[in-house]
C-alpha cells in the first residue's frame, strides 16, 4: 500500500510518500517540503498548496492520504493556518475518492519511536533508520510527513483487525439477545 | 459590487449574496445555509461544502468573497472545522481569481449594528432591516453571512481610502527624506 503523509502547514507543509511492503517493511518514495510566501494572501497560499497536492497525487498515485490532526497550538493564528492546510489536502483527496485518515501527533510519535512523547530529533532519527535513508530528512516537517505515512501503514492493519473484532462482538451480542428473547418467549408460553 | 458572504462551518455554513448600490444601499440576492452530515468523514464533508460553494459561485458570479475570520472558539474541534470550511471557500475563490477578504466577528457586528459586541439577535434584526427583508433570515448563520457581505461592502471603500492615504503619506515621507539628503549633501559641500 502506498501512503501520502502530510504534515500540514502554510509556511512549511511536509509531504512524504511511503510504500508498505510485507510485514513492517517500509520504503521512502518521495519527500519534500512545500513553502508558501508569508506575505501573500491566505487564499493565494492555499491555492499554491492545493496545486502542489494535485501534482503529488498525480505523480505518486497514493492509495490513501494520512494527515496530521491538529488539536491546538499555542499560536491560534498558526493553528488556523495548519487546520486550513490540512483541510485543503483532505479535500483534494476526497475529490479523487481517496480515503483520508487523520492521526494525532502522539499516535505518530508512538508508532515510529514507541513513545507518544518523543521529540522531533527522535522522530527524525527513527524515520531515517526505518526507511534506511542515508541522510536524515530535513526540515522536521519532511520527517514528520514520512512518520505519518509509516504510522498509517502500521496502524491500518491493527485498526482493521480491531474493527473485525468489534463487528464479531456485535454479532455475538445480537445472537445472545435473540437467544434471550426466545427463552423469555418460551417461559411466557409455559407460564400460560 | 456583488459580495458573497460566508459564515464558515461544517455543521452549518451560512451563504449570503448581497449587491451594493449607490451610497450605502444594499440588496439581498440570495441566502441559505449549507449543512453537512456530522456522521460523515471530514474529507467528504469538506467536499460537499466545496461543491456547494462552486454552485453558488457559478450561479451568482460575485466579484468578491468575504469570509468570517476565526480567531478562537471554546471548542477546539469546532474551531478547526470552521477554519477548514473557511479555507475551502477561500481556495474556491482563489481558483477563480476572486479576491477573498476576511473580517472578524466584531468588525461585522460593528459594521451592521454600530457595536462590535452586539448579540446574534441584534445582528439578525439589523440585517433584516438593512436589506428590507419581510422575514428575518434563519438560522443565525444565514443572517451572519449577509452581515459579512454588508460589512465588506461598507468597509471596502473605507479601506481603499485608508490605503490611498497611507500611500500618499509614504510618498510625502519619501520626498521629505530626499530633501533632507540633498540638504545634508549641500552642507557637506559647503563645509569642504
From TrEMBL, chains A, B:
Keywords: Cytoplasm, DNA damage, DNA recombination, DNA repair, DNA-binding, Endonuclease, Hydrolase, Magnesium, Metal-binding, Nuclease. Binds 2 Mg(2+) ion per subunit. The keyword Metal-binding applies. The active site is at residues 7, 68, 141. Its EC number is 3.1.21.10. GO terms for molecular function: crossover junction DNA endonuclease activity; DNA binding; magnesium ion binding. Mg(2+) 2 binds at residue 68. InterPro entries: RNaseH-like_sf (IPR012337), RNaseH_sf (IPR036397), X-over_junc_endoDNase_Mg_BS (IPR020563), X-over_junc_endoDNase_RuvC (IPR002176). GO terms for biological process: DNA recombination; DNA repair. One of its GO terms (cellular component) is cytoplasm. Mg(2+) 1 binds at residues 7, 141. Its cofactor is Mg(2+). It is found in: Cytoplasm. PROSITE patterns: RUVC. Gene3D superfamilies: Ribonuclease H-like superfamily/Ribonuclease H. It catalyses: Endonucleolytic cleavage at a junction such as a reciprocal single-stranded crossover between two homologous DNA duplexes (Holliday junction). The RuvA-RuvB-RuvC complex processes Holliday junction (HJ) DNA during genetic recombination and DNA repair. Endonuclease that resolves HJ intermediates. Cleaves cruciform DNA by making single-stranded nicks across the HJ at symmetrical positions within the homologous arms, yielding a 5'-phosphate and a 3'-hydroxyl group; requires a central core of homology in the junction. The consensus cleavage sequence is 5'-(A/T)TT(C/G)-3'. Cleavage occurs on the 3'-side of the TT dinucleotide at the point of strand exchange. Belongs to the RuvC family. Homodimer which binds Holliday junction (HJ) DNA. The HJ becomes 2-fold symmetrical on binding to RuvC with unstacked arms; it has a different conformation from HJ DNA in complex with RuvA. In the full resolvosome a probable DNA-RuvA(4)-RuvB(12)-RuvC(2) complex forms which resolves the HJ. This is Crossover junction endodeoxyribonuclease RuvC. It comes from Saccharothrix coeruleofusca. The gene is ruvC.
Amino acid at each position: 500500500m502506498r501512503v501520502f503523509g502530510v504534515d500540514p502547514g502554510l509556511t512549511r507543509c511536509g509531504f512524504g510518500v511511503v510504500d508498505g511492503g510485507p510485514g513492517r517493511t517500509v520504503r521512502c518514495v518521495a519527500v519534500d517540503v512545500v513553502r508558501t510566501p508569508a506575505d501573500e494572501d491566505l487564499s493565494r497560499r492555499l491555492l499554491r498548496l492545493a496545486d502542489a497536492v494535485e501534482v503529488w497525487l498525480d505523480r505518486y498515485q497514493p492509495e490513501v492520504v494520512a494527515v496530521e490532526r491538529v488539536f491546538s497550538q499555542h499560536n491560534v493564528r498558526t493553528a488556523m493556518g495548519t487546520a486550513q492546510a490540512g483541510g485543503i489536502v483532505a479535500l483534494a483527496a476526497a475529490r479523487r475518492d481517496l480515503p483520508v485518515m487523520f492521526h494525532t501527533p502522539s499516535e505518530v510519535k508512538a508508532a515510529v519511536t514507541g513513545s507518544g512523547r518523543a521529540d522531533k530529533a527522535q522522530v527524525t532519527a527513527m524515520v531515517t533508520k526505518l526507511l534506511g535513508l542515508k541522510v536524515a530528512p530535513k526540515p522536521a516537517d519532511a520527517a514528520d510527513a514520512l512518520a505519518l505515512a509509516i504510522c498509517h501503514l502500521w496502524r491500518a492493519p491493527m485498526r482493521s483487525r480491531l474493527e473485525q473484532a468489534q463487528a464479531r462482538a456485535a454479532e455475538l451480542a445480537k445472537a445472545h439477545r435473540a437467544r434471550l428473547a426466545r427463552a423469555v418467549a418460551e417461559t411466557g408460553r409455559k407460564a400460560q
